[in-house]
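Bug: token stream looks shifted between consecutive jobs. Job 1:
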Amino acid sequence: DTLEAEGRREFTQHWHLFHGASPDFDEAGRAVHVTDERDDRVLSIYQRGDLESGDMALYSGSEDPWSGWSAPRYEVRQPIWTLRSKTRGDSAPFVTVFAANEHALKAWNVTVARGDGEDLVEVHSKGDTDHTPGYTVRIEHDVTPARVHVMKSAH
């Protein structure tokens, strides 16, 4: 997603996790690994864009800032984990990659190359020993609606 505004401002993106999720940042603080109630890793979230270190945070039942809540019914709130990413500027390109199931167990390199008219997102397994294919995503943003092309690539 690319968000734009008149003038400089803060942009935030929120991903609400499922009940029973236990999230934790990787060592670099650039990905969140999520385990379920059985302590199995079921999801990894990689966030890229114009984010700086510390611009990703996890909240559960927070009132300052108000984040990390779900409402299963009217007048009932329950804490739930929420991943918040933020950046500042007059535009905000957010690139989020979700790796689920067996792909959540791998570590992924995610790189973004922004260009005139299109962006390229490369997703490849780190330390690949089983020759897992990677992906190249080409996003044409000079057309409305934007066109997205996903290509599987050999590693």
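Job 2, same session, no restart:
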Amino acid sequence: KARNRRDLAVDTLERGALIVVTNEAQAKGNVLSNRSGDRFEGPELQMNVETYQGTFTQPIGADLSLLLSADANWRSSPFYEVTNSINSREPGYWVVNGRVGISGPDDRWTLALFGKNLTKTVYRTYVNELPDFGWILNVYGQPRTYGLSASFKL
């Protein structure tokens, strides 16, 4: 039975999402947030994380398939210190990644170009502030990276 292009596209698209919201009330009693009125990792929310991803696979010829995938991850404005110091608050940010490739028969091999942090987002993943010494340690997330990947099955 012949299938039209629309049916083929629907059959070859995978999508997903993960949304995690932890409110401040759930954090009460936590060793990291037991000081009266203090919150850890968020002004109103403990942490808000959203991840969206999609993968599209399309046959393009004799035993070859085109692979397209992307994912995006959002972080709310977390505080990275229990003292809620303004220096330890990171503005909300998105990180977007993508991949384009081809695969052989039965996915026995794959060759792909990938890119991570495609929007060149600058963000911190860790902060350690020691104000008595005038010291703030900031650890930043990965910059934009790209490359070529190859895999095969024996």
